[in-house]
Structures are given as C-alpha cells and as structure tokens.
Amino acid sequence: MEAIMRNLFLTMAKSQTANRLAKRYGLRFGAQRFVAGESIQHAVETTKRLNEQGLKVTLDHLGESVYTRDEAAQAAADCIRTLDAISEAEQNMYLSIKLTQLGLDIDEGLCLDHVKKIVSRAAESGYFVRIDMEDYAHNEATFRLFHKLHADFPNQIGLAIQACLHKSKQDIAELGKKGVNVRLVKGAYKESPEVAFPDKADVDKQFIDLLEMHLTSGGFTAIATHDETVITHIKQFVTEQDIPKERYEFQMLYGIRTQLQLDLVKEGYPVRVYVPFGTDWYAYFMRRLAERPANVNFVLRSMFKK
Questions:
Q1: Which residues of 80-115 are buried (b: 16+ CB within 10 A; e: fewer)?
Q2: Which residues contact residue 266 at a Cβ distance below 8 angstroms, ignoring those fewer than 6 apart?
Q3: Rounded to 5 degrees, what are φ and ψ at 184?
Q4: Where do the domains of the chain lie?
Q5: CA 241, CA 231: separation in Å to the nearest integer?
Q6: Are residues 128 and 163 in contact, defined by beta-carbon separation less than 8 angstroms?
Q7: β-strand 221-224 against 157-162: which pairing, if any?
Q8: Is 90 helix (H, G, I), strand (E, B) or coil?
Q9: 132 is catalytic
C-alpha cells in the first residue's frame, strides 16, 4: 500500500493542471507545514527565526520545469532578489536552485548564463549556492553545467547527489577527488529500476556507503536525512574517524522532525534546515507526501480540522 501511495503522489507531482490550480488557490490542506510561505519576506522571517534557534538555513525559491525564456529569466531574478534580501537581513543561509527552473529544458547555454549571474551575486555577498539534483532525465546535463560552474566558482557552488541511483557511487568518487561540497539525499523521484535501486533497503545501504566515502574524501558533506538510524551511525563514524564538525552538517526539511533538529543542535552538531518558499509549491509538496505516510496523515487531519 505504501508503494502504491508513493507512486500515486509522484505521478501527481508531474501534473501541470494540478500545479496551476495550486498556484491559483495558494497554500492549502497542510502544505504550509512544509513550505515557509509564498513571499521572500516570509523566507526572511523564517530564516531569522531558525537562526535564532541555532539552525542554519538553505532557501529554495520553489519552481521547476519552466518552458519559456521569460519564465526562466523571472526565476533567475527571483533568486537574485532572495540573495539580496537575505544579505540585507544578515542571516545565515545559502541558496538552493533547480536547473529546470532556470531554463535547462529550453537551452543549456541560457541556463548556464542564469546560474552564473546567481552564483556571482552570491559570491559578492559571501553566500553559497547548491544545485539540486532533479530526475534522472536531467542528471547528465546537470553534471555538465555543474563542472563548468565549479571550475569558475570552486568555493561558491555545490551539488546534491541521490543515493538511489546506480551511478552515484562513481559520481561521489569523482566529486570527492575534486573536493566538491556535496549534499547527499536518498532521492525523491520516481525512477526506472534500470537506473535506480527499487528496494528501500538497497537505497539505505548505498546512502550509508556514499556518506562514508565522501566524509573521508576531505570534501564537505551535507547529510540530508531524518532517519535516526543513519544519524546515529554517522555520529559514531565521524567520532571514530576524527572528522571535524567543520566538514559536515546534518540537513533536514522544514516542517519535518523539528524536535530532532533542535536536539542535534543542543548536542553540538551543525544542522541546516531546507526551507522552501514561493507560489510554485505543488510538485515539492507532492514529493513530501510520497516520502512518508505520516505526512499524508497530517494533511488529512488538517483538511478536517475546524
């Protein structure tokens, strides 16, 4: 049943009609738990509150799969405005971007130009930019653009890698040699068994293997998980390997396992919260529902709450 629900929500995430309706009617039915708000001001306020609790922040101006040059240019301008607003507020954050939001499906050169403008502005203010890894269909193009950008901005840009993909062990080995700042996630997209592990146990095992590989490579590792078994294992591993806290951090999603985030901060571990905002929240929300049945239960309760 859980697999059926996951596939259903991942399929729904791709619906352009549902996405348009979601934009029209705004955050509804529990989405506000996982999305900080629709405006940059909401993002700034949330970042400030989390920083005051000892939590670092990644901001994601939601959006993906745009199909016109004007939309891509608007998305790039929104990212730059977000950087400017956070810089003015002097908050501890970095920016997460999706290349399909910036024109990857239109023209790679156009997308590259947009990302260069964003990373250049981030560098001026001392901020960091992470490229999210999207579905497998965009994997190779994402790597092509990332390597071009990393050559020009080695300290200002990083990449997310999905543990579910068969190719990720080779990718992590190569990125480790270059000292790339990597965010490791299990993966939240529906993929073919030809390119991704279909069984959760295999994904979990590769996730641990990749974390250990990158943690010992010398590069920075962002450990993106809410899985306490993984967190406990990594705590022990970094202690045994004497890996300093400047070389890793735990990362979790806004609205999920909030108390665990605060507990880790109290224990002295670096923790960063991935905070999405904006009107284009539908696909992100569907993937959060696909990840955990408990998220669905929360939404159902919110729908019938008086």
A1: bebbebbbeeebebbbbbbbbbbbbbbeeebbbbbb
A2: none
A3: -100, 125
A4: 2-10+55-301
A5: 15
A6: no
A7: unpaired
A8: coil
A9: yes
Is 0.90 topped by the overall pTM? no
CATH code of the domain made up of 2-10+55-301: 3.20.20.220
Phi/psi for 135 (5° steps) reads -65, 165
The catalytically annotated residue of 105, 132, 135, 171 is 132
Cα 281 to Cα 114: distance, rounded to the nearest angstrom: 21
Amino acid in the structure at residue 243: I
Task: Tell me, yes or no, if 183 is annotated catalytic.
Answer: yes
Q: How far apart are CA 104 and CA 62, in angstroms?
A: 15
| Measured distance between the N- and C-terminal CA atoms of the chain, rounded to whole angstroms | 29
Rounded mean pLDDT for each run of 10 residues along the chain, 306 residues in total: 51 51 50 80 92 95 86 95 87 92 97 97 94 96 98 96 98 97 92 95 97 96 95 98 97 92 98 89 65 52 42
Q: Active site residue: 121, 130, 183, 272, which one?
A: 183
The residue to which tokens 């990393």 are assigned: 150
| Residue 261 · residue 243 · CB < 8 Å | no
